[in-house]
Amino acid sequence: MLASPLAGRIALSIVAIVIAGTIAFALLNLKRGRVDPTEYAIGGRSFGTIFLWVLLAGEIYTAFTFLGAAGWVYLHGAAAYYIPAYGAIGYLVGYALLPRIRRLGAERGLVTAPDLLANYYRSPRLGVLAAILYVVLALPYVTLQLSGLQIVLSSAGYGWLNGTIGAAVAFTAIALFTFTAGLRGTAWASLVKDGLVLAVVLFAGVALPIHFFGSLGGMFAQLQRTNAALLTLPVGDAPLGQVWFITTVLFTGIGFYMGPHSIAATFSARSDNTLRRNAMLLPLYSIVLIVIFFAGYAALLLVPGLHGPAADRSFLLVIARYYPPWVMGFVAGAGALAALVPSSALILASAAIVVRNIVRPAFPGRIDERHETLAMRVAVIAISAAALLAWWLAPETLGSLLLVYYSGITQFLPGVVGAAFGLRLRGIAVTLGLAAGVVTAALLTYVLAHLGFNPGFGGLLVNLLVVAFVEWLAPKTKTSPPMANSSFEAPTTD
Protein backbone atom coordinates (compact mmCIF):
# COMPACT_ATOMS: atom_id res chain seq x y z
CA MET A 1 0.00 0.00 0.00
CA LEU A 2 1.25 3.52 -0.82
CA ALA A 3 2.26 5.66 2.13
CA SER A 4 0.08 8.68 2.84
CA PRO A 5 -0.71 10.99 5.75
CA LEU A 6 -4.16 9.38 6.00
CA ALA A 7 -2.67 5.88 6.27
CA GLY A 8 -0.34 7.07 9.01
CA ARG A 9 -3.16 8.73 10.93
CA ILE A 10 -5.30 5.59 10.77
CA ALA A 11 -2.51 3.29 11.96
CA LEU A 12 -1.27 5.63 14.67
CA SER A 13 -4.80 6.23 15.96
CA ILE A 14 -5.20 2.49 16.46
CA VAL A 15 -1.81 2.32 18.21
CA ALA A 16 -2.84 5.16 20.54
CA ILE A 17 -6.15 3.43 21.33
CA VAL A 18 -4.36 0.15 22.08
CA ILE A 19 -1.87 1.81 24.45
CA ALA A 20 -4.46 4.01 26.17
CA GLY A 21 -6.94 1.14 26.45
CA THR A 22 -4.33 -1.13 28.02
CA ILE A 23 -3.33 1.49 30.58
CA ALA A 24 -6.98 2.20 31.42
CA PHE A 25 -7.76 -1.52 31.78
CA ALA A 26 -4.84 -1.99 34.15
CA LEU A 27 -5.64 1.07 36.26
CA LEU A 28 -9.31 0.11 36.62
CA ASN A 29 -8.33 -3.29 38.00
CA LEU A 30 -5.93 -2.00 40.67
CA LYS A 31 -6.59 -2.44 44.36
CA ARG A 32 -7.67 0.70 46.14
CA GLY A 33 -6.21 1.86 49.43
CA ARG A 34 -2.77 2.32 50.94
CA VAL A 35 0.15 0.87 48.98
CA ASP A 36 3.22 -0.22 50.94
CA PRO A 37 6.63 -0.94 49.35
CA THR A 38 5.99 -4.69 49.14
CA GLU A 39 2.65 -4.19 47.37
CA TYR A 40 4.09 -1.57 45.02
CA ALA A 41 7.27 -3.45 44.06
CA ILE A 42 6.23 -7.14 44.18
CA GLY A 43 2.44 -7.19 44.35
CA GLY A 44 2.26 -8.10 48.01
CA ARG A 45 3.68 -11.60 47.32
CA SER A 46 0.19 -12.63 46.20
CA PHE A 47 0.35 -13.39 42.47
CA GLY A 48 -1.09 -16.66 41.22
CA THR A 49 -0.38 -18.68 38.09
CA ILE A 50 -1.86 -16.31 35.47
CA PHE A 51 -0.24 -13.09 36.69
CA LEU A 52 3.08 -14.82 37.23
CA TRP A 53 2.88 -16.45 33.82
CA VAL A 54 2.53 -13.15 31.98
CA LEU A 55 5.15 -11.41 34.15
CA LEU A 56 7.80 -14.09 33.64
CA ALA A 57 6.88 -14.28 29.96
CA GLY A 58 7.91 -10.64 29.77
CA GLU A 59 11.41 -12.01 29.09
CA ILE A 60 10.00 -13.62 25.93
CA TYR A 61 7.40 -11.30 24.42
CA THR A 62 9.38 -8.07 24.14
CA ALA A 63 10.33 -5.70 21.34
CA PHE A 64 13.22 -8.04 20.62
CA THR A 65 10.84 -10.93 20.05
CA PHE A 66 8.61 -8.78 17.92
CA LEU A 67 11.26 -7.14 15.76
CA GLY A 68 14.76 -8.23 16.72
CA ALA A 69 14.13 -11.96 16.25
CA ALA A 70 12.79 -11.38 12.75
CA GLY A 71 15.67 -8.97 12.08
CA TRP A 72 18.23 -11.52 13.25
CA VAL A 73 16.75 -14.17 10.99
CA TYR A 74 16.84 -11.66 8.14
CA LEU A 75 20.53 -10.87 8.71
CA HIS A 76 21.98 -14.03 10.22
CA GLY A 77 19.56 -16.87 9.50
CA ALA A 78 20.09 -19.94 11.67
CA ALA A 79 22.05 -18.00 14.31
CA ALA A 80 18.69 -16.68 15.55
CA TYR A 81 17.68 -20.19 16.58
CA TYR A 82 19.51 -19.56 19.84
CA ILE A 83 16.41 -17.71 21.06
CA PRO A 84 14.03 -20.67 21.59
CA ALA A 85 16.98 -22.89 22.49
CA TYR A 86 18.08 -20.83 25.49
CA GLY A 87 14.49 -20.63 26.71
CA ALA A 88 14.33 -24.41 26.95
CA ILE A 89 17.33 -24.40 29.29
CA GLY A 90 16.02 -21.40 31.20
CA TYR A 91 12.75 -23.11 32.13
CA LEU A 92 14.58 -26.15 33.50
CA VAL A 93 16.76 -23.89 35.63
CA GLY A 94 13.70 -21.95 36.75
CA TYR A 95 11.86 -25.06 37.91
CA ALA A 96 14.68 -25.92 40.31
CA LEU A 97 15.84 -22.43 41.27
CA LEU A 98 12.89 -20.05 41.49
CA PRO A 99 10.87 -21.79 44.26
CA ARG A 100 13.95 -21.64 46.51
CA ILE A 101 14.45 -17.94 45.77
CA ARG A 102 10.78 -17.21 46.48
CA ARG A 103 10.86 -19.05 49.79
CA LEU A 104 14.01 -17.29 50.91
CA GLY A 105 12.44 -13.96 49.98
CA ALA A 106 9.27 -14.68 51.95
CA GLU A 107 11.20 -15.88 55.02
CA ARG A 108 13.52 -12.87 55.13
CA GLY A 109 11.29 -10.11 53.77
CA LEU A 110 13.33 -9.61 50.59
CA VAL A 111 12.03 -7.39 47.79
CA THR A 112 14.93 -6.94 45.33
CA ALA A 113 17.72 -9.07 43.87
CA PRO A 114 20.44 -7.15 45.79
CA ASP A 115 18.39 -7.76 48.96
CA LEU A 116 18.93 -11.47 48.35
CA LEU A 117 22.70 -11.15 47.99
CA ALA A 118 23.28 -8.64 50.79
CA ASN A 119 21.08 -10.52 53.25
CA TYR A 120 22.29 -14.05 52.60
CA TYR A 121 26.01 -13.23 52.43
CA ARG A 122 25.79 -10.63 55.21
CA SER A 123 27.60 -8.18 52.95
CA PRO A 124 26.17 -4.66 52.54
CA ARG A 125 28.99 -3.87 50.10
CA LEU A 126 27.93 -6.76 47.88
CA GLY A 127 24.39 -5.40 48.00
CA VAL A 128 25.52 -1.94 46.90
CA LEU A 129 27.73 -3.33 44.09
CA ALA A 130 24.90 -5.56 42.89
CA ALA A 131 22.47 -2.63 43.00
CA ILE A 132 24.72 -0.39 40.91
CA LEU A 133 25.40 -3.12 38.35
CA TYR A 134 21.74 -4.09 38.07
CA VAL A 135 20.64 -0.51 37.44
CA VAL A 136 23.43 0.13 34.91
CA LEU A 137 22.68 -3.13 33.08
CA ALA A 138 18.98 -2.30 32.99
CA LEU A 139 19.69 0.62 30.67
CA PRO A 140 20.67 -1.49 27.60
CA TYR A 141 17.54 -3.60 28.09
CA VAL A 142 15.24 -0.59 28.29
CA THR A 143 17.14 1.01 25.40
CA LEU A 144 16.40 -2.12 23.40
CA GLN A 145 12.68 -1.68 24.05
CA LEU A 146 12.85 2.01 23.14
CA SER A 147 14.65 1.24 19.88
CA GLY A 148 11.92 -1.26 19.08
CA LEU A 149 9.23 1.26 19.97
CA GLN A 150 10.80 3.86 17.68
CA ILE A 151 10.83 1.38 14.79
CA VAL A 152 7.21 0.41 15.41
CA LEU A 153 5.89 3.98 15.57
CA SER A 154 7.88 5.29 12.62
CA SER A 155 6.65 2.33 10.54
CA ALA A 156 3.06 2.87 11.67
CA GLY A 157 3.35 6.53 10.67
CA TYR A 158 4.34 5.52 7.11
CA GLY A 159 7.16 8.03 7.25
CA TRP A 160 4.93 10.89 8.39
CA LEU A 161 5.81 10.68 12.11
CA ASN A 162 9.12 11.29 13.82
CA GLY A 163 9.55 7.91 15.51
CA THR A 164 11.91 9.33 18.12
CA ILE A 165 9.37 11.86 19.36
CA GLY A 166 6.56 9.31 19.24
CA ALA A 167 8.58 6.79 21.23
CA ALA A 168 9.51 9.41 23.83
CA VAL A 169 5.84 10.39 24.29
CA ALA A 170 4.65 6.77 24.59
CA PHE A 171 7.49 5.91 26.96
CA THR A 172 6.65 8.91 29.13
CA ALA A 173 3.06 7.66 29.34
CA ILE A 174 4.17 4.21 30.47
CA ALA A 175 6.58 5.74 33.00
CA LEU A 176 3.69 7.69 34.54
CA PHE A 177 1.61 4.50 34.50
CA THR A 178 4.37 2.63 36.34
CA PHE A 179 4.68 5.53 38.80
CA THR A 180 0.99 5.07 39.61
CA ALA A 181 0.31 1.37 39.25
CA GLY A 182 3.33 -0.61 40.48
CA LEU A 183 3.84 -4.27 39.66
CA ARG A 184 0.17 -5.21 39.93
CA GLY A 185 -0.68 -2.71 37.20
CA THR A 186 2.14 -4.07 35.06
CA ALA A 187 0.72 -7.58 35.46
CA TRP A 188 -2.74 -6.47 34.30
CA ALA A 189 -1.18 -4.69 31.31
CA SER A 190 0.81 -7.84 30.51
CA LEU A 191 -2.43 -9.79 30.11
CA VAL A 192 -3.50 -7.50 27.27
CA LYS A 193 -0.01 -7.31 25.78
CA ASP A 194 0.54 -11.05 25.59
CA GLY A 195 -2.84 -11.75 24.02
CA LEU A 196 -2.37 -9.13 21.30
CA VAL A 197 1.26 -10.04 20.60
CA LEU A 198 0.32 -13.72 20.32
CA ALA A 199 -2.34 -12.92 17.72
CA VAL A 200 0.01 -10.73 15.68
CA VAL A 201 2.91 -13.21 15.81
CA LEU A 202 0.67 -16.02 14.57
CA PHE A 203 -0.60 -13.78 11.78
CA ALA A 204 2.88 -12.70 10.73
CA GLY A 205 4.48 -16.12 10.89
CA VAL A 206 1.69 -18.12 9.29
CA ALA A 207 -0.27 -15.75 7.06
CA LEU A 208 2.72 -14.11 5.35
CA PRO A 209 4.38 -17.32 4.07
CA ILE A 210 1.06 -18.78 2.93
CA HIS A 211 -0.09 -15.56 1.27
CA PHE A 212 3.09 -14.92 -0.68
CA PHE A 213 4.60 -18.39 -1.21
CA GLY A 214 1.63 -20.75 -0.99
CA SER A 215 2.97 -22.61 2.05
CA LEU A 216 5.87 -22.74 4.48
CA GLY A 217 7.44 -25.38 2.27
CA GLY A 218 7.22 -23.06 -0.72
CA MET A 219 8.97 -20.30 1.20
CA PHE A 220 11.80 -22.56 2.36
CA ALA A 221 12.22 -23.97 -1.14
CA GLN A 222 12.80 -20.45 -2.43
CA LEU A 223 15.18 -19.73 0.45
CA GLN A 224 17.13 -22.86 -0.43
CA ARG A 225 17.57 -21.54 -3.95
CA THR A 226 18.46 -17.95 -3.07
CA ASN A 227 19.83 -17.83 0.51
CA ALA A 228 20.86 -21.38 1.39
CA ALA A 229 23.78 -20.25 3.57
CA LEU A 230 21.40 -18.64 6.06
CA LEU A 231 19.68 -21.94 6.80
CA THR A 232 22.70 -23.45 8.57
CA LEU A 233 25.24 -22.24 11.13
CA PRO A 234 28.80 -21.38 10.09
CA VAL A 235 31.26 -24.11 11.04
CA GLY A 236 33.49 -23.98 14.11
CA ASP A 237 34.47 -20.71 15.75
CA ALA A 238 33.44 -18.44 12.88
CA PRO A 239 31.44 -15.35 13.93
CA LEU A 240 27.94 -16.49 14.94
CA GLY A 241 29.05 -20.05 14.24
CA GLN A 242 28.64 -23.31 16.11
CA VAL A 243 30.91 -22.40 19.05
CA TRP A 244 29.14 -19.07 19.47
CA PHE A 245 25.75 -20.78 19.27
CA ILE A 246 26.54 -23.42 21.92
CA THR A 247 28.11 -20.97 24.36
CA THR A 248 25.32 -18.42 23.86
CA VAL A 249 22.54 -20.97 24.39
CA LEU A 250 24.14 -22.36 27.55
CA PHE A 251 25.08 -18.97 28.95
CA THR A 252 21.81 -17.18 28.21
CA GLY A 253 19.75 -20.16 29.33
CA ILE A 254 21.30 -20.42 32.78
CA GLY A 255 21.06 -16.64 33.18
CA PHE A 256 17.48 -16.44 31.96
CA TYR A 257 16.04 -15.47 35.36
CA MET A 258 18.91 -13.38 36.71
CA GLY A 259 17.34 -10.06 35.67
CA PRO A 260 16.12 -7.82 38.50
CA HIS A 261 12.53 -7.86 37.21
CA SER A 262 12.56 -11.66 36.96
CA ILE A 263 13.66 -12.02 40.58
CA ALA A 264 11.08 -9.41 41.62
CA ALA A 265 8.41 -11.43 39.79
CA THR A 266 9.64 -14.53 41.63
CA PHE A 267 9.24 -12.76 44.98
CA SER A 268 5.68 -11.81 43.93
CA ALA A 269 4.58 -15.47 43.64
CA ARG A 270 1.97 -16.76 46.06
CA SER A 271 3.62 -20.18 46.47
CA ASP A 272 6.41 -22.44 45.27
CA ASN A 273 4.04 -24.52 43.18
CA THR A 274 2.88 -21.41 41.34
CA LEU A 275 6.44 -21.07 40.06
CA ARG A 276 6.73 -24.77 39.22
CA ARG A 277 3.51 -24.65 37.20
CA ASN A 278 4.83 -21.64 35.33
CA ALA A 279 8.07 -23.43 34.49
CA MET A 280 5.96 -26.17 32.90
CA LEU A 281 3.65 -23.76 31.02
CA LEU A 282 6.15 -21.18 29.77
CA PRO A 283 7.59 -23.42 27.00
CA LEU A 284 4.30 -22.83 25.17
CA TYR A 285 5.52 -19.28 24.60
CA SER A 286 8.79 -20.52 23.08
CA ILE A 287 6.94 -22.65 20.55
CA VAL A 288 5.23 -19.51 19.30
CA LEU A 289 8.61 -17.76 19.03
CA ILE A 290 9.55 -20.07 16.18
CA VAL A 291 6.68 -18.65 14.16
CA ILE A 292 8.25 -15.18 14.12
CA PHE A 293 11.26 -16.66 12.32
CA PHE A 294 8.97 -17.48 9.41
CA ALA A 295 8.03 -13.78 9.23
CA GLY A 296 11.73 -12.87 9.12
CA TYR A 297 12.44 -15.30 6.30
CA ALA A 298 9.39 -14.06 4.38
CA ALA A 299 10.60 -10.47 4.77
CA LEU A 300 14.05 -11.46 3.48
CA LEU A 301 12.51 -12.68 0.24
CA LEU A 302 9.98 -9.85 -0.11
CA VAL A 303 12.12 -6.82 0.86
CA PRO A 304 15.76 -7.88 0.29
CA GLY A 305 18.80 -5.66 0.65
CA LEU A 306 18.37 -4.34 4.20
CA HIS A 307 21.50 -4.02 6.34
CA GLY A 308 22.29 -3.43 10.01
CA PRO A 309 19.54 -1.87 12.14
CA ALA A 310 17.29 -1.53 9.07
CA ALA A 311 16.71 -5.29 9.22
CA ASP A 312 14.85 -4.86 12.52
CA ARG A 313 11.98 -3.24 10.61
CA SER A 314 11.92 -5.83 7.82
CA PHE A 315 8.67 -7.53 8.72
CA LEU A 316 6.94 -4.19 9.36
CA LEU A 317 7.98 -3.07 5.87
CA VAL A 318 6.11 -6.06 4.46
CA ILE A 319 3.00 -5.12 6.45
CA ALA A 320 3.25 -1.48 5.32
CA ARG A 321 3.73 -2.42 1.67
CA TYR A 322 1.11 -5.14 1.25
CA TYR A 323 -1.60 -4.60 3.90
CA PRO A 324 -4.08 -1.80 4.73
CA PRO A 325 -3.25 0.71 7.48
CA TRP A 326 -5.70 -0.75 10.00
CA VAL A 327 -3.70 -4.00 9.92
CA MET A 328 -0.52 -2.02 10.50
CA GLY A 329 -2.27 -0.27 13.39
CA PHE A 330 -2.97 -3.49 15.27
CA VAL A 331 0.45 -4.94 14.45
CA ALA A 332 2.17 -1.76 15.63
CA GLY A 333 -0.06 -1.58 18.70
CA ALA A 334 1.07 -5.05 19.71
CA GLY A 335 4.68 -4.08 19.03
CA ALA A 336 4.35 -0.95 21.14
CA LEU A 337 2.98 -2.94 24.09
CA ALA A 338 5.78 -5.49 23.63
CA ALA A 339 8.24 -2.65 24.18
CA LEU A 340 6.45 -0.68 26.88
CA VAL A 341 5.16 -3.32 29.30
CA PRO A 342 8.49 -5.17 29.85
CA SER A 343 10.13 -1.76 30.26
CA SER A 344 7.63 -0.99 33.00
CA ALA A 345 8.58 -4.13 34.95
CA LEU A 346 12.32 -3.52 34.64
CA ILE A 347 12.11 0.17 35.52
CA LEU A 348 10.03 -0.67 38.59
CA ALA A 349 12.51 -3.34 39.71
CA SER A 350 15.39 -0.90 39.18
CA ALA A 351 13.61 1.82 41.14
CA ALA A 352 13.07 -0.54 44.07
CA ILE A 353 16.77 -1.44 43.94
CA VAL A 354 17.87 2.21 43.99
CA VAL A 355 15.72 2.98 47.02
CA ARG A 356 16.19 -0.18 49.07
CA ASN A 357 19.83 -0.91 48.29
CA ILE A 358 21.42 2.50 47.69
CA VAL A 359 19.31 5.27 49.24
CA ARG A 360 17.98 3.50 52.34
CA PRO A 361 21.41 2.22 53.52
CA ALA A 362 22.72 5.78 53.18
CA PHE A 363 20.00 7.01 55.57
CA PRO A 364 19.55 4.18 58.10
CA GLY A 365 16.39 4.36 60.17
CA ARG A 366 15.20 7.58 58.52
CA ILE A 367 12.93 6.22 55.76
CA ASP A 368 9.59 4.72 56.80
CA GLU A 369 7.31 2.65 54.54
CA ARG A 370 5.32 5.61 53.26
CA HIS A 371 8.45 7.52 52.26
CA GLU A 372 10.00 4.38 50.79
CA THR A 373 7.04 3.91 48.46
CA LEU A 374 7.18 7.58 47.48
CA ALA A 375 10.92 7.31 46.85
CA MET A 376 10.33 4.30 44.59
CA ARG A 377 7.82 6.31 42.57
CA VAL A 378 10.30 9.18 42.18
CA ALA A 379 13.03 6.70 41.20
CA VAL A 380 10.74 5.33 38.47
CA ILE A 381 10.67 8.77 36.83
CA ALA A 382 14.43 9.30 37.28
CA ILE A 383 15.37 5.92 35.79
CA SER A 384 12.94 6.41 32.91
CA ALA A 385 14.61 9.75 32.12
CA ALA A 386 18.06 8.13 32.28
CA ALA A 387 16.93 5.36 29.93
CA LEU A 388 15.62 7.92 27.43
CA LEU A 389 18.94 9.76 27.54
CA ALA A 390 20.93 6.54 27.06
CA TRP A 391 18.73 5.62 24.12
CA TRP A 392 19.33 8.96 22.39
CA LEU A 393 23.09 8.72 22.93
CA ALA A 394 23.82 5.07 22.13
CA PRO A 395 21.37 3.32 19.77
CA GLU A 396 22.40 -0.14 18.56
CA THR A 397 20.75 -3.08 16.83
CA LEU A 398 18.24 -4.92 18.99
CA GLY A 399 20.06 -8.24 19.01
CA SER A 400 23.33 -6.66 20.14
CA LEU A 401 21.64 -4.83 23.00
CA LEU A 402 20.04 -8.00 24.32
CA LEU A 403 23.37 -9.84 24.34
CA VAL A 404 25.04 -6.97 26.25
CA TYR A 405 22.29 -7.20 28.88
CA TYR A 406 22.60 -10.97 29.31
CA SER A 407 26.40 -10.79 29.37
CA GLY A 408 26.13 -8.66 32.48
CA ILE A 409 23.20 -10.04 34.45
CA THR A 410 24.30 -13.66 34.20
CA GLN A 411 27.38 -12.77 36.25
CA PHE A 412 25.01 -12.77 39.25
CA LEU A 413 24.43 -16.51 38.81
CA PRO A 414 27.04 -17.82 41.31
CA GLY A 415 25.77 -15.57 44.09
CA VAL A 416 22.08 -16.23 43.44
CA VAL A 417 22.54 -20.00 43.12
CA GLY A 418 24.71 -20.05 46.23
CA ALA A 419 21.98 -18.30 48.22
CA ALA A 420 19.15 -20.41 46.82
CA PHE A 421 20.87 -23.72 47.56
CA GLY A 422 22.40 -22.72 50.89
CA LEU A 423 26.06 -22.83 49.80
CA ARG A 424 28.49 -21.49 52.42
CA LEU A 425 30.28 -19.02 50.17
CA ARG A 426 31.90 -15.87 51.51
CA GLY A 427 30.56 -12.50 50.52
CA ILE A 428 34.04 -11.34 49.46
CA ALA A 429 34.38 -14.30 47.09
CA VAL A 430 31.02 -13.58 45.45
CA THR A 431 31.81 -9.85 45.26
CA LEU A 432 35.22 -10.30 43.61
CA GLY A 433 33.87 -12.96 41.26
CA LEU A 434 31.01 -10.69 40.19
CA ALA A 435 33.37 -7.78 39.52
CA ALA A 436 35.83 -9.96 37.59
CA GLY A 437 33.06 -11.51 35.51
CA VAL A 438 31.55 -8.17 34.50
CA VAL A 439 34.95 -6.70 33.56
CA THR A 440 35.87 -9.80 31.54
CA ALA A 441 32.52 -9.82 29.72
CA ALA A 442 32.97 -6.14 28.83
CA LEU A 443 36.48 -6.75 27.47
CA LEU A 444 35.32 -9.71 25.40
CA THR A 445 32.37 -7.72 24.07
CA TYR A 446 34.17 -4.55 23.03
CA VAL A 447 37.87 -5.48 22.67
CA LEU A 448 38.17 -9.19 21.89
CA ALA A 449 34.91 -9.82 20.01
CA HIS A 450 36.76 -11.63 17.21
CA LEU A 451 37.39 -14.70 19.38
CA GLY A 452 34.12 -16.27 18.21
CA PHE A 453 32.35 -17.25 21.44
CA ASN A 454 29.82 -15.57 23.68
CA PRO A 455 31.60 -12.88 25.73
CA GLY A 456 29.37 -13.35 28.75
CA PHE A 457 30.23 -17.05 28.84
CA GLY A 458 33.91 -16.15 29.14
CA GLY A 459 33.05 -13.68 31.89
CA LEU A 460 31.12 -16.33 33.81
CA LEU A 461 34.05 -18.76 33.64
CA VAL A 462 36.36 -16.11 35.09
CA ASN A 463 33.71 -15.30 37.70
CA LEU A 464 33.52 -18.93 38.86
CA LEU A 465 37.31 -19.28 38.90
CA VAL A 466 37.69 -16.18 41.07
CA VAL A 467 35.01 -17.40 43.51
CA ALA A 468 36.72 -20.79 43.76
CA PHE A 469 40.18 -19.24 44.16
CA VAL A 470 39.10 -16.84 46.93
CA GLU A 471 37.31 -19.65 48.76
CA TRP A 472 40.46 -21.79 48.49
CA LEU A 473 42.66 -18.99 49.87
CA ALA A 474 40.32 -18.03 52.71
CA PRO A 475 40.52 -19.49 56.23
CA LYS A 476 38.68 -22.75 56.70
CA THR A 477 36.21 -21.41 59.28
CA LYS A 478 32.99 -20.39 57.53
CA THR A 479 30.57 -17.79 58.77
CA SER A 480 28.04 -17.55 55.96
CA PRO A 481 24.51 -18.12 57.23
CA PRO A 482 22.86 -21.42 56.38
CA MET A 483 19.66 -21.49 54.42
CA ALA A 484 16.46 -22.03 56.36
CA ASN A 485 15.48 -25.69 56.35
CA SER A 486 12.14 -24.95 54.72
CA SER A 487 13.97 -24.05 51.52
CA PHE A 488 14.68 -27.72 50.99
CA GLU A 489 11.13 -28.98 51.42
CA ALA A 490 9.67 -31.19 48.72
CA PRO A 491 6.98 -29.77 46.40
CA THR A 492 3.52 -29.65 47.91
CA THR A 493 0.09 -28.87 46.56
CA ASP A 494 -1.33 -25.36 47.00
TrEMBL record:
It is found in: Membrane. InterPro entries: Na/Glc_symporter_sf, Na/solute_symporter, Sodium:Solute_Symporter. This is Putative Na+/metabolite cotransporter. The chain crosses the membrane at residues 6-30, 50-73, 79-98, 126-144, 164-183, 195-221, 241-259, 280-306, 326-354, 374-394, 400-421, 428-449, 455-474. It comes from mine drainage metagenome. The keyword Flavoprotein does not apply. Keywords: Membrane, Transmembrane, Transmembrane helix, Transport. Belongs to the sodium:solute symporter (SSF) (TC 2.A.21) family. GO terms for molecular function: transmembrane transporter activity. It is a multi-pass membrane protein. One of its GO terms (cellular component) is plasma membrane. The keyword Transmembrane helix applies.
